[in-house]
Amino acid sequence: MPAAGQRTTLQEYVARDKGQNQGLEAVIMAIAEGARRIQQQVQQAALTDTLGVTGEVNVQGEIVQRLDTASSDTFVETLSQSGQVAAIGCEEIEDPVIVEGEVANGYIVLMDPLDGSSNIDVAVSIGSIFGIWIRRPGEIVNDDSLLRPGNEQVAAAYVVYGSSTVLVLATANNVCGFTLDTESGTFAVTHPNIKIPADCPYYSTNEGNNKVLDEPTQRAIGMLRDKYSQRYVGSLVADFHRNLLKGGIFAYPADTNRKDGRLRLMYEANPLGYVAEQAGGAASTGYARILDIIPKELHQRTPLILGNKDVVEATVSVISGG
Ligand code: AHM
Ligand code: MG
Q1: Measured in whole angstroms, how far is the alpha carbon of residue 290 from the centre of its chain?
Q2: Distance 36 CA to ligand 1 centre (A)
Q3: One fold for both 4-191 and 202-320?
Q4: Ligand 1 pocket, 71 CB below 6 A?
Q5: Centre of ligand 2 from the C-alpha of residue 45, in Å
Q6: Which whole number is the average pLDDT over 247-270?
Q7: Strand ranges inside the chain, DSSP E
Q8: Considering only CA atoms, which residue is closest to atom 11 of ligand 1?
Q9: Which residue among 111, 129, 207, 235 is best mutated to probe the pocket of ligand 1, counting the most ligand atoms within 8 A of its Cβ?
Q10: Which CATH code fits 4-191?
Q11: Most informative mutation of 110, 158, 241, 263 for ligand 1 (most atoms within 8 A of CB)
C-alpha cells in the first residue's frame, strides 16, 4: 500500500469524481475542514472543559451537549464560507440557515453535526452526517427548498470520530472512505470502492426496546437475533460504518412510544440510505424505501431499517406482513 503522502487525497478524488456537479469539491472540503476541527475538539474536550450539557433543549426536545453546539457552529461556518452552499438544515437549529449573498451553484446541505449524543462524554465513537442536494435550476432558495426527497441527493457523506477519523463519501459513481492524517490535517483514500459485503454477520438494534415493538416487528427482530451476532454502539454513524465495512443491518423501527421512529429522515436516514444504496445496500422504513419519502418537515422522524439489501428486504417483509 502507498505511504500516507502517496495516497490520493480527498481533494484530488472529488475533483475527479464530482461529475457534472460543479463546485461540489468546495462543499466536500468544507465538510472535511469542519471534521478536522471537530476531531481536535472531541479529542481535547475533557481537557478543555467542553464536555457536558449546555442547559438547553433542542427542537427535538433533546438535551443539547456543548459539543453538539460547537459542531453545529463549526460546520455552519465552513459550509457558509465555501461559496457553494445556499442553505443548511441542521439537527441543532430549528429553522433552515439561508446563506446570504451570491452563492455560485447553490448546494443544499442537511446535517447532523454530531451524532451519538449519549456517547460524547464517554470516549465512544461519534460522528457527523451530511445529505447534499443541488438547488433546482433558477430556484430562489427559501425554507421549503430543503424539503427534497432523498432520491434527489447528489452526494452524501459521514465522518466517524473513532479510533481513527474516517470520512465516507458517496456520489453517483462510487463510495469511498478517507482517513484523516492528524499531522497534515488531510484526508487520504484508505477504503476505495466500498461495497457492503454479501455476508451479514451483525445486526444492530436497541434490544431494550423489544417490549414496545408491535408483534410483527418483534418477530422481525427475533429473526435477526436468531441468525446474527448483535453489535450496538448507540451511535448510528458508528453502527452503520461497521455494518458497511463488515456486513450487517441496523434497525430502529417504530414502537409504541415512538410511532414515527426515533431517527431523523432528512439528516440521518436519507444520507445514510443514499450511502447504503450506492454501496449495494438498502434503506427502508419497514414499509417504504427511505429515499422515496416526500418530506413534510425539516426535523421529521422515521423508522429505519438499513444495511445489507437481502436482509433489509427479509426484515421488511416480516414487519409489513408481506
Ligand atoms: P442524536 O442524533 O441526538 O445523537 O441521536 C441519534 C442516536 C443515534 O446515533 C443512535 O442510533 C440512536 O440515537 C440511539 O438511540 P437509543 O439510545 O434509543 O438506542
Ligand atoms: Mg444523530
Answers
A1: 13
A2: 23
A3: no
A4: no
A5: 19
A6: 97
A7: 53-57, 63-65, 85-90, 93-98, 107-115, 126-134, 155-161, 165-171, 175-181, 186-191, 202-204, 229-230, 248-252, 263-264, 282-284, 301-302, 304-307
A8: 236
A9: 235
A10: 3.30.540.10
A11: 263
Residue 133 in this model has a pLDDT that exceeds 90: yes
Q: Residue 104: its pLDDT value, please?
A: 75
Pocket test for ligand 1, best of 252, 255, 301 (most atoms within 8 A of CB): 252
- Model confidence pLDDT, tens digit, residues 68-113: 899 999 999 999 999 999 999 999 999 999 998 878 789 999 999 9
**Sorting pLDDT into bands at 50, 70 and 90, what band is 210?**
very high
CATH number (1.25.40.10, 1.10.4080.10, 3.40.190.80, 3.40.640.10) of 202-320 reads 3.40.190.80
User: Which of 129, 113, 127, 18 is CA-nearest to residue 58?
Assistant: 113
Contact predicate 244/276, CB 8 Å:
yes
Gap from CA of 20 to ligand 2 centroid (Å) = 30
Report the 10 Å Cβ neighbour count for 263. Answer: 20
Rounded CA-CA distance 148/238 in Å is: 26
Percent of the chain with pLDDT over 90: 84
Q: Where are the domains of the chain?
A: 4-191, 202-320
Supply the DSSP string of 48-77, one letter for each residue: TT--SEEEEE-TTS-EEEHHHHHHHHHHHH
